[in-house]
Amino acid sequence: MITYDGPGDVVLLIDTEDPAEAERLAPRLRRAAEHRAELERRAVEAVVRRFSVEPPTAVDLAEAAADLVLNTMVVDGDGEVVLHFTDSCGKHLLDGYWPAVRLDERDAVVDVTVEA
Fold first, then answer.
1. Three-state SS for 115?
2. What pLDDT does 60 receive?
3. What pLDDT digit, counting tens, does each position of 5-37 carry?
4. Which is it for the CA torsion 16, 18, 24, 26, positive or negative?
5. Quick check: helix, strand or coil at residue 4?
6. What residues contact 94, with CB distance under 8 A and at least 6 apart?
7. Are 82 and 71 in contact (CB under 8 A)?
8. Which of 52, 54, 59, 103 places its Cα 20 to 30 Å from the Cα of 20?
9. How many CB atoms lie within 10 A of CB 45?
10. pLDDT confidence of 4, banded at 50, 70, 90?
11. C-alpha distances out from residue 45 to 8, 19, 48, Å
């Protein structure tokens, strides 16, 4: 069983149809879920830094942390985790778009994208 210790509902997803592959990736997803707060904080900071013209202030980061809500954690076959966020206030991204942050096996941010 994978536990998630955080506010609200978050979908935990292993991106495979192969049961053996899912079993292999489950510990990676578990580790990400257990460290959700730290990963979420770093991911939100990466989103703000990626899309800011100037270095973000502490206020910018705090507002983004309140506005961007983690809704899905996905682990893929390479052991990378993608965190998908919802723009809860609708003022950061156009409707139907959301930020996604890719983390490598060591939980370092490797990419920030906007998805639709």
1. strand
2. 95
3. 556 789 999 999 999 999 999 999 999 999 999
4. positive
5. coil
6. none
7. no
8. 103
9. 17
10. low
11. 20, 34, 5
